From TrEMBL:
<dbReference type="InterPro" id="IPR016024">
    <property type="entry name" value="ARM-type_fold"/>
</dbReference>
<feature type="domain" description="Exportin-1/Importin-beta-like">
    <location>
        <begin position="116"/>
        <end position="245"/>
    </location>
</feature>
<dbReference type="InterPro" id="IPR011989">
    <property type="entry name" value="ARM-like"/>
</dbReference>
<dbReference type="InterPro" id="IPR013598">
    <property type="entry name" value="Exportin-1/Importin-b-like"/>
</dbReference>
<dbReference type="GO" id="GO:0006606">
    <property type="term" value="P:protein import into nucleus"/>
</dbReference>
<comment type="similarity">
    <text>Belongs to the importin beta family.</text>
</comment>
<dbReference type="Pfam" id="PF08389">
    <property type="entry name" value="Xpo1"/>
</dbReference>
<protein>
    <submittedName>
        <fullName>Armadillo-type fold</fullName>
    </submittedName>
</protein>
<keyword id="KW-0539">Nucleus</keyword>
<keyword id="KW-0813">Transport</keyword>
<dbReference type="GO" id="GO:0005634">
    <property type="term" value="C:nucleus"/>
</dbReference>
<dbReference type="InterPro" id="IPR051345">
    <property type="entry name" value="Importin_beta-like_NTR"/>
</dbReference>
<dbReference type="GO" id="GO:0005737">
    <property type="term" value="C:cytoplasm"/>
</dbReference>
């Protein structure tokens, strides 16, 4: 690498910016990275700032500010990373140099970004030195700020950087606490500065900068609390009105109050009181809260003048809504004080923000009502706070009314043909309109929670009345469609309230009956909302099975409409899933009767799966076993009616027709054999014979189908065959082994592409009981060794992560199936070779961990413990493990230790090798690497080596004497904890030695 010098740095920077050669830019970039680490960086940074032009004056003018910025940035980075290495003299020199650059003359013509980096560097010097090298930081900054307006602005920049960096610098907890303590002692000086700036009416930019800086001190780790101080809150409130037309200032006021509220202890009063504690605000805090309430009242007056025009003073109105929301959420207890007088005033403000024509502002109010519910419902009672229920009733009415607005505001009438099909997805006031409706639906649920919590039956009745009023809007009304849709949206939220379900099933049944009548609008969006309603509110059908037939009829009608099929199929599955058992034969027959038509007309995979699965589930839930079997046979006949013609197409190998038809058939078969829940699995036992007969009749079709199309849609065929295995288990017909042979053929063609087919073999080992399936046992004896070698070879060739994972899963499951048989069919050395290859060559921690855990489990097999090949390979295996895991986790240490403990008797002849391996582990611990990087003396490193050798010798002795698993596990874990805490090595060793002495008798 070229010598690091100022001229070379400038040239490399120009190359980085201008060169078209990628290699040249990479070299230049690496050079500049090395510059940051070099000791010359300090002096070079100063040269770059003072003399950005090179000796030949050849650098273009446009690059000079960039070179100066690089110098300023370099000073900031070096200060932040290497301050601890600077002595007091260097700190003073650096501070003087930066202040000279920040002087009013600006003789080097520095840009604003350069000043910002230099101010940030001074902020770091202040943080590190406020208790040592720069104890007069604040007074020095104040004196500097008094030199002029430019210095005033830069001084604020320094203070802002000082506040922001407290959360990112790396210091021990004790030093951080001391810094925060010092700042707290001097916060009076800071607040005096900020108060004077915020009060400037004729200097809005300085007032804004002062408020921003104050907010940073509130937000950062210093957590300054203006609520407990004089004047600050009052000055900010006055400044808000003085600069009410300055949008940036308004937004900064909002951020300031949000931080102030979150830092106040008063935000926890409600929780403390609920736990039987007592908490009172300081007098100053009470006074400042009253100032904020008066400020909100004054803002409310102007807000009222703008609330009917969404664009008038938008930022002002939004600031009011944001401050009010944060105030209420953090100081919720105010709603419950003074016999509700303060609460009623604040609730009225919140209701007014909900009425604003801008849905972005109204949404703030909706979210606030929902947040308040979470805090209030645990602490309120009907007797004391009934006015809260009234507030929620009004919020419900306004929220549902707001949810009826549309994008097209100039349309007075929404007739069916005028209905804007895109409204639900349109951007409205920077939020999606559908999001606002969802928020209002949450408000409905929050209101019901409050009403239920306070036993306010009147509130619940009010909610139901609003919904019925919307549902029963006359057809001739211009709001007919909108009202119906909003009502359904509001009702959807109640699906999450189980208590309401139990108590109000009659009301919901009436709603269902009204929806299912011919009175409701048949508009597309209304229908889609109704289908979603069925999907989410299906529990109501469970409470009233008398409406099941009508609901299914409505869904079936919409299955015939292409645009509604997807939602209708989801609603169908949801409704049928929730029904536990039924005897509605007529509804089932209607559904089955329409099944062929659905299968012919649908081309969407999810809809086919939903419908087919729903029909099967519905058949399973028929109360009579006879009806179940009859229903299944009917369904199978329909499916076979689709399969038989396609069987001929497969035999003729007509590729064009195969590609056109196979997806539909595949989706139908997957739906038949897909997983069912526990209840349905129990019911499946009653019709298992029907399913097995269907499979036996069609095994040749499925085999041929797999052979011809298995490469076209891998995941679906895996689903199908795994489903077949899980549904039939030991009742699988003998010909199913053809699946295995074909799966291996696919895998051999392309292991990476077809690795998923290994899941079929895994599931056979998982689902079949040992020796209960002769066909599978015979296949294992004849083919497992060859199959295993095939997969092992694929792993060695591809090192593909997915192939490795599947092989590990299969080997583990096969060992559980018949350990002795599998070990006899497995070449041990070849298996160990794969383990070592994976651990050495795959840079994937999780996969290496899976491989290691598998290996450790494999070692517990009885035949392994006496395997001399394993004993000979063990040092190499352990060394490879430690190579793959240079920083072992406690969990892996435990697992390795347990296995070594079980096999400890075998280590007597190999103890030197084992000790050397463990020695290498300790050598590679992160702690040791960090010591080396920090440049510790050779003597210290030798001392560390001695401690390591003592440790491994003791551990080696420990491994060959009688002991308990827990003791050795604890010893290793304790050592691992100690060595990684960055405590002194002597302390680590002494602690370890004491531990060993209490546990070992050598």
């Amino acid at each position: 690498m070229e010598q690091i010098s100022t001229e070379n740095v400038k040239n490399k920077y120009i190359e980085l910016c201008k060169s078209q050669n990628t290699k040249t830019r990479e070299i230049a970039n690496q050079f500049l990275i090395e510059l940051e680490r070099s000791p010359q960086a300090w002096s070079i940074a100063q040269d770059l700032i003072q003399n950005p032009q090179n000796q030949n004056k050849s650098i273009e003018q446009m690059f000079l500010p960039q070179i100066q910025f690089m110098g300023c940035q370099l000073i900031y980075k070096k200060t932040k990373l290497e301050f601890i290495q600077l002595d007091a003299q260097h700190v003073q020199q650096l501070k003087n140099f930066i202040f000279e650059l920040l002087s009013g003359q600006n003789q080097y013509q520095l840009t604003q970004p350069c000043f910002k980096q230099l101010c940030a560097a001074l902020g770091i010097l202040g943080l590190f030195g406020i208790n040592s090298t720069w104890k007069n930081m604040f007074s020095d900054i104040i004196a500097y700020m008094q030199q002029g307006s430019d210095q005033l602005y830069l001084g604020l920049e320094i203070l802002e950087s000082f506040a922001n960096d407290i959360d990112v610098i790396i210091l021990d907890q004790g030093s951080l606490s001391e810094i925060k303590k010092t700042v707290k002692q001097q916060q009076g000086q800071l607040l005096e500065i900020f108060n004077s700036l915020i009060s400037m009416q004729d200097r809005p930019q300085l007032a804004l900068k002062g408020l921003n800086c104050l907010t940073c001190f509130c937000k950062s780790g210093f957590k300054i609390q203006p609520l407990t101080q004089d004047n600050t809150v009052k000055n900010v409130a006055l400044a808000l009105f003085n600069h009410s037309q300055n949008e940036d200032f308004l937004l900064q006021v909002r951020d300031f109050f949000d931080e102030v509220f979150q830092n106040s202890k008063a935000r926890n009063i409600l929780m403390i009181l609920s736990m039987g504690g007592e908490e009172k605000l300081e007098q100053k805090e009470q006074e400042n809260i009253q100032i904020i309430i008066e400020m909100l009242k004054k803002m409310q007056e102007q807000f009222k003048q703008c609330m009917n025009n969404k664009n008038q003073n938008f930022i002002y109105c939004k600031t009011f809504a944001d401050i009010l929301s944060s105030f209420l959420v953090n100081f919720t207890h105010l709603l419950l004080e003074n016999n509700g007088q303060t609460g009623i005033q604040l609730i009225q403000m919140l209701l007014e923000t909900l009425q604003h024509k801008s849905l972005q502002i109204a949404l703030i109010s909706v979210d606030t009502w929902c947040d308040l519910k979470n805090k209030l419902k645990k602490y309120i009672s009907q007797q004391q706070y009934s006015y809260l229920g009234e507030g929620y009733k009004q919020a419900l009415q306004i929220g549902l009314s707001q949810a009826r607005y549309r994008k097209v505001e100039d349309k007075e009438k929404f007739e069916k043909e005028q209905y804007d099909n895109g409204d639900d997805d349109c951007q409205y006031d920077d939020i999606k309109f559908n999001d606002f409706r969802s928020a209002v639906a949450d408000l409905c649920l929050s209101s019901l929670n409050i009403f239920t919590n306070q036993n306010q039956s009147g509130g619940i009745s009010y909610f139901e009345g609003l919904i019925l009023q919307l549902l029963q809007t006359p057809k001739e009304s211009p709001e007919y469609l909108l009202n119906f849709e909003v009502a359904i949206f509001g009702l959807k939220s109640v699906s999450d309230d189980d208590n309401y379900f139990d108590k109000k099933s009659e009301f919901m049944s009436n709603v269902f009956r009204y929806i299912l009548s011919d009175q409701f609008p048949q508009d597309y969006f209304v229908v889609s909302t109704v289908l979603q309603f069925f999907y989410e509110f299906c529990l109501s059908i469970k409470h009233d099975l008398s409406i099941l037939g009508d609901v299914l009829g409505y869904i079936q009608k919409n299955l015939e409409i292409p645009s509604n099929r997807s939602l209708a199929s989801q609603a169908l599955q949801s409704v049928i899933d929730v029904v536990e058992s039924h005897n509605n034969i007529e509804a089932f027959k209607k559904l089955v009767h329409s099944l062929p038509n659905y299968l012919d007309s649908l081309d969407d995979e999810l809809s086919i799966e939903n419908i087919t699965t729903s029909v099967f589930t519905f058949a399973l839930k028929l109360e009579s076993t006879e009806h179940k079997k009859e229903g299944f046979n009917t369904i199978f006949q329909i499916v076979e009616g689709k399969m038989i013609p396609f069987f001929l197409v497969l035999r003729e190998n007509n590729q064009q027709q195969i590609e056109q038809q196979y997806k539909n058939i595949l989706n139908i078969l997957v739906s038949i054999f897909k997983g069912f829940d526990v209840y349905q699995q129990q019911q499946m036992e009653l019709v298992a014979d029907n399913l097995q007969e269907f499979l036996i009749r069609n095994i040749d079709f499925i085999n041929l189908f797999y052979e011809k199309c298995g490469s076209l849609q891998i995941s679906k065929f895996v689903q199908l065959l795994v489903g077949v295995i899980k549904r039939c288990r030991n009742k699988l017909p003998e010909k199913f082994t053809i699946f295995l042979d074909q799966s291996i053929k696919f895998f051999q063609q392309d292991p990476v592409k077809y690795y998923q087919y290994l899941q079929i073999i895994y599931n056979l080992f998982d689902q079949l009981k040992k020796k209960n399936n002769q066909a599978f046992n015979q296949w294992i004896l004849q083919n497992y060794r060859q199959f295993n070698q095939c997969v092992i070879q694929a792993i060695k060739t591809t090192l593909d992560v997915d192939v490795i994972r599947e092989w590990i899963k299969i080997t583990k499951k096969a060992t559980e199936y018949d350990g002795d048989l599998i070990h006899n069919l497995t070449d041990f050395e070849e298996l160990m070779g794969v383990i070592l290859d994976v651990l050495k060559n795959i840079i994937n921690y999780e996969l290496n961990r899976e491989t290691l855990v598998f290996f450790l489990g494999y070692l517990k097999t009885p035949s392994i413990k006496t395997n001399q090949k394993f004993i000979n390979l063990l040092p190499q295996i352990l060394e490879t493990i430690f190579y793959a895991f240079p920083e072992l986790t406690k969990t892996l240490i435990h697992q390795i230790t347990l296995v070594l403990n079980e096999l400890g008797v075998q280590f007597k002849d190999n103890i030197q090798n084992i000790q050397q391996i463990i020695y290498n582990v300790v050598f590679n611990l992160k702690c040791y690497k960090d010591f080396i990087k920090q440049g510790d003396t050779q003597e210290y490193i030798q001392q560390y080596d001695q401690y390591r050798q003592l440790f491994v010798q003791a551990l080696g002795q420990f491994m060959v004497v009688p002991h308990s698993n827990q003791k050795i596990k604890n010893t290793l874990a304790d050592f691992h904890d100690l060595i990684n805490r960055y405590i002194s090595l002597s302390e680590a060793y002494n602690a370890l030695q004491m531990k060993l002495q209490t546990q070992i008798s050598v």
